[in-house]
Amino acid sequence: MLFMPKIVDHDRYRKELLKKCFDLFAQRGYGSLTMRQVAQEIGVSTGTLYHYFPSKEALFLQLIEEITQQDTSISADDIQGVETIEERILALGQFLMEHEDYFHKQTLIFINFFQQPELEQEPIIEAVKRSNQRYQEAIMQFLGIDNPAIANHVSCLIDGLISQRAFDPESVSIKGQMELLAQMLSAYLDNQPIS
Amino acid sequence: MLFMPKIVDHDRYRKELLKKCFDLFAQRGYGSLTMRQVAQEIGVSTGTLYHYFPSKEALFLQLIEEITQQDTSISADDIQGVETIEERILALGQFLMEHEDYFHKQTLIFINFFQQPELEQEPIIEAVKRSNQRYQEAIMQFLGIDNPAIANHVSCLIDGLISQRAFDPESVSIKGQMELLAQMLSAYLDNQPIS
Amino acid sequence: MLFMPKIVDHDRYRKELLKKCFDLFAQRGYGSLTMRQVAQEIGVSTGTLYHYFPSKEALFLQLIEEITQQDTSISADDIQGVETIEERILALGQFLMEHEDYFHKQTLIFINFFQQPELEQEPIIEAVKRSNQRYQEAIMQFLGIDNPAIANHVSCLIDGLISQRAFDPESVSIKGQMELLAQMLSAYLDNQPIS
Amino acid sequence: MLFMPKIVDHDRYRKELLKKCFDLFAQRGYGSLTMRQVAQEIGVSTGTLYHYFPSKEALFLQLIEEITQQDTSISADDIQGVETIEERILALGQFLMEHEDYFHKQTLIFINFFQQPELEQEPIIEAVKRSNQRYQEAIMQFLGIDNPAIANHVSCLIDGLISQRAFDPESVSIKGQMELLAQMLSAYLDNQPIS
DNA sequence: AATGAATGAGCGTTCATTCAT
DNA sequence: TATGAATGAACGCTCATTCAT
Questions:
Q1: Which of B46, B138, B178, C104 is in Cβ range 3.0-4.6 Å of B93 for a Cys bridge?
Q2: pTM
């Protein structure tokens, strides 16, 4: 391949750098983070950073795009012998606990993204919305639910859990809330008329 | 009034300025907001801004302190003829819808506060946590609930609603979720053994 | 006097304020001193300060003008029973020691004045030079010397003493140097041919 | 050179910049000189200036430290065929005249240094005093004098000459004063009892 | 006459970005 | 490709000065 020699390597390295930026943007925020800090923390010079990303804005937008394209879904391993909806909700809780830090940071970055009106949001804003929808659909599918209101309920609850625990992790427990949700949902579904 | 001559006016004006800053910090974020922008948007010069606040950091911290001390609770008017828990939850939804914008912005500011490690957070961090607790207690009291897990459930749900709607207001409806919550909660409580 | 009612008072107060500024300008320097500092240290508001002086520059120039017009000469009391040139030089040393602080500060202010090229120096620069000449003449007269080279010698020595002691008061003693000067001068004058 | 790769260049350039600052600080004074002016006059951008000096204060202190470490002593060339103390004093005068401008500026900078109480003076103040002592010792050694009072006399005279000529170069001549000093000193030393 | 809140130009400093090596 | 020195616009903040009271 004469004409596409190292593009792959270049692109692969770019994504590695993006990965290393994830925590930084989540922890400091776009406006409070400097390119020097980014360069230093991910272990390159500013020159190299600019070699892979034309600007701070582009770096941030590429980071968000990368996040929206990641598929952090429940793996087959997590569903071993999970049958009832109660079990599935508890498995969901387990999954959340394992990825809490990642979800929290992703939320911070999305929020931050919407706070920067001078950024060229439009090309990406739809991707973010779609990413959110995909999460919700994944939840519905995993729980075997087809009622969108319930799916919303679950996903809002998860969102709220993540963000409340960000302020104060001791204020609420994921496991406890998932158990309560399982019970409430069971009671609610049992009460429903056969449709 | 011989003593305390103009302190009141100075302090009153300071709080007026703080109020005008609320939207700005929520919409842009601490790091992306400049003091020139603040000054211009609230209609004073930078000099005047610094006459009332010794630094950008102090301005932000005072804003947060002011927020934690505000008491945006459900007024008596909202509870006219509200008896059952279902009615109360719907009234809560109504209240949320009326103050959604405020709650959303408050959340953004708090999140932003925790993202700035170089700020002197300690003196205020407890006030923020206490403010969050007060909200939860207010919900419990209003709903007549004494089970903290349920209170957590409701407050997480609200939090999640607010933040999901921030991304995309059409993705989920407050009214719908409150109706669902009322039904789930009724079903759950009816199923509970008499304790 | 209907038409000159309080000018005198106004002018007298202005000069009082100038007096209070003397130490400040000497200790901090024109460029490092702010009008707020001046106002606070001399116990008035900035508004009042500007009521008496149209600008910082004018304040400084008036201060220098005032200094050049002051006549810190050796008083009659200091010359009681002083006859020989040795006695006179020692009396001069005594006088210097008593006013060392004032002379040091005056020197600082003059130096500082010449360091500010943006100031309107011309109207005053001559007054400063004349003031310096007057000092020298006073020394000549007091010592009974009519040889200008010797007068220059004495005045340079004094100048150098003052400024070396400003850096480090223990590096050289006024009394010791005046005693040495007396001896050197005697030896020199005795050696001179009768002219 | 594997270790210490570009430190030398960086440091060398830093000292070049310091050298270019010398005149500026002497002519304007610390408080009246802005970093923009410095940058412009020495031909770099403000960014570059801050690349070499962390702050205005550090720049000034490094300048003073550099001055104290310089060794502007009388070179061997100046002492050709200088034997008697009279000849040595005249040679000293010649040396002074050649370096008058430098000495004058150094004095201005030192005075200015002591006028800035907010500067971190302590680490440097001793260096300045030592530098002054070294000058004095150099004078003593050059003149072949071991009487410290006479050394003080000469150094005060020089100091005074430099500063009086700063106000008005025509008020006093270096050559004339050195000739007078030579005569006075000869007369004084001849009169001394043999010790 | 006296005050001090208000102003905005300008200060010290930092930042995203460029470019010679 | 990778570096980090260089740039100058823009930041947080201060200052001389004005003006309503």
A1: B178
A2: 0.91
